[in-house]
Design goal:
Layout: H1 6-10, H2 13-40, H3 43-49, H4 54-84, H5 91-108, H6 110-114, H7 118-151
Helix pairs in contact: 2-3, 2-4, 2-7, 4-5, 5-7
Length: about 150
């Protein structure tokens, strides 16, 4: 690949990163469900699940999701600006920014959840479920954008 082709190739880094992030979000959801089962299950269930360290793994995957979401959002905006001299303010950008805010707010609730705050836990789950639902829409709208970039090459 030549240096001149780099700006065009960068258009595809953000979508690829976001698809990986969507899959990682589904895995973090799975870990969160298992972590809840450790907290709320029967003694037998808890004993079987504790070695899986689901709460710790959920926390680590959530932290990874947060950092990749923030840098992925900023990176997508930066590449769009570099290639076009402007941002296209539309639903994909607005929803992406909202998702980034939602995941940051959900992560910020972690200290309260560690103290046993049930309202914080419910808000964390609600924010993340909303974010993942929006993420599914983002995947579709993002592929429409990728298709436009590819066909206008």
């Amino acid at each position: 690949m030549t240096l001149a082709a780099l700006p065009f190739a960068l258009n595809f880094l953000h979508p690829l990163m976001m698809w990986v992030l969507l899959a990682a979000g589904a895995y973090a959801l799975f870990l969160g469900i298992k972590a809840k089962k450790v907290r709320t299950g029967t003694p037998e269930e808890r004993k079987a699940l504790i070695p899986g360290k689901f709460a710790q793994r959920h926390y680590l995957w959530g932290s990874l999701l947060l950092v990749v979401m923030v840098f992925g959002t900023l990176g997508g905006m930066a590449v769009t600006y570099l290639n076009n001299g402007k941002l296209f303010v539309g639903p994909h950008l607005i929803v992406g920014l909202a998702m980034t805010g939602m995941i940051a707010a959900a992560a910020a609730l972690s200290p309260l959840m560690q103290q046993g705050n049930l309202l914080a836990r419910k808000a964390h789950v609600g924010l993340n479920m909303g974010m993942l639902t929006l993420f599914l829409w983002q995947a579709v709208s993002g592929m429409e954008i990728v298709n436009k970039i590819w066909t206008n090459r």
